[in-house]
Amino acid sequence: MANTYDFGLVGLGVMGRNFILNVADQGFTAFGNDVNEDAVATLIEEGGDPSKVNADVEVSNFVAALSKPRKIMLLVPAGKVVDAVIESLLPHLEEGDIIIDGGNSFFTDTDRREAYLKEKHINFFGAGVSGGAKGARKGPSIMPGGSREAYQYVKPIFEAVAAKYDGEPCVAYLGPKSAGNYVKMVHNGIEYGLMQLTSEIYDLLKKAGGLTNQEQHECFAKWNSGRLQSFLVEITSEILAQKDDLSDGDLVDMILDKAKQKGTGKWTSQNAMDLGIPVPTIDIAVSMREISALKSERIKADEIYDRPNPESVVKDTLANKAEQALYFAFIMAYAQGMHQLADASKEYGYALNLGEIAKIWRAGCINRAALLTDIPNAFKAPPDLANLLLSPSFSEKIKETVAATRELVAYGATNGIPLPGLSNALTYFDAYTSSRLPLNLIQAQRDYFGSHTYERIDREGIFHTAWEED
Ligand code: 6PG
């Protein structure tokens, strides 16, 4: 069995096991490795035929089983574990072998690992994999970055296992170094935004329209057959219909309102700040997870302050406006994420193809949505489009839905229902589309107290005014 298996995978948790079984379903032979003997045994049993799917706890046996150049994917927790696994593999590898990190690693860690392994003539890919456990088994969206030359060895396997949209695989070589991890990070930032927005619409339908979970289930299901069609709208509909096993009610009502996070959304926001690109819908989605975690403080504060009783709105009217507002805000979240990718592409030399990225998000990943199908065209003409808001096809969609968004944001503010994602999306739109903002006053203040200087609208140059003396 030496040097015969096409593909190796380290980390046989649910994601890893599902991914390797998917590889085997596509006709490739695959070999797994995990420090946990039970995980190894489970894979061998589920694989059925050890000549097609096999596994071993011993790293040396694992590496020896793989054909050359070895293609070894890691699906292990991001951070130190990735470095530890790389070190354990290194003594057994040969020049030209390929390691692919399929986890949500921070992009600068990927750059460091790529440079370190390059010195040893080992190719390193950071490949974001989206779609959760089901995606890994049935077809994820894969976002690989690394050496273009080495990608030829990985390409047939990735194209076979990836989700398909109209027959096209949801995977593409994205760029050098950490391009793949970076794109996956921003994918997750957008994911945070879409999830926050969906939760606000759920709150609004409940508090303003009195829609029951069952009615909301039907509402989201209907939206999912229209322009809002997306994985997150689809699962929201299913979640709202789920009965609870442990009580008489619906499961969603019994779930504690504290959202956890593993960091990718926060990294997206942090890096957007470093780049100087505004992504307020993603920022607020991270902040809302942080506010949600302050549950005991929120309970105390709720006792101190009164809030208005929401004025009731006719269900159908509300649902119609909510559909428009969610569509509007989804566009803002994608526009911000794509803007960040465009800038990062220049800053880090990724040479990203934004249309291609939208294409590989059309199926398999958490962000898959009907509105992504319009993004490739938007970036085709002109290819250097700075922001989706400037594209004619998107400006039409935005113009149709902005009025309803304004009404709901105003309603939320008056009636004490927090809609930070929606209102941020609207503010982003209003600010980005204002040819004159009041930041001239900020420049004047900066110059007043710190002599920081300012520019003028009527002539070139840098100016300073002796404000106090004047
Ligand atoms: C995906 C997801 C996935 C992510 C989870 C959890 O694309 O399949 O983005 O990679 O790990 O969504 O993220 P948080 O724990 O940060 O919410």
Task: Explain the overall architecture.
Helix 5 (107-119) links the parallel strand 5 (98-101) and strand 6. This protein is α/β, with parallel strands linked by helices and 470 residues long. The protein has a 7-stranded mixed sheet, sandwiched between helices. It has helices at 14-25, 37-47, 59-64, 80-89, 107-119, 132-138, 148-161, 179-209, 213-223, 231-240, 251-254, 264-275, 280-293, 295-304, 315-348, 354-360, 375-380, 392-415, 420-432, 439-450; strands spanning 7-10, 30-33, 53-56, 71-74, 98-101, 123-130, 141-145, 164-165, 168-169. Helix 1 packs across helix 7, helix 9 packs antiparallel against helix 10 (231-240) and helix 15 crosses helix 18. It binds 6-phosphogluconic acid. 6-phosphogluconic acid is lined by residues 104, 130-132, 188, 191, 260-262, 264-265, 365-366.
Task: Kindly summarize this structure in a few lines.
With about 475 residues, the protein is of the alpha/beta class. It has 20 helices and nine strands. 6-phosphogluconic acid (6PG) binds near residues 104, 131 and 262.
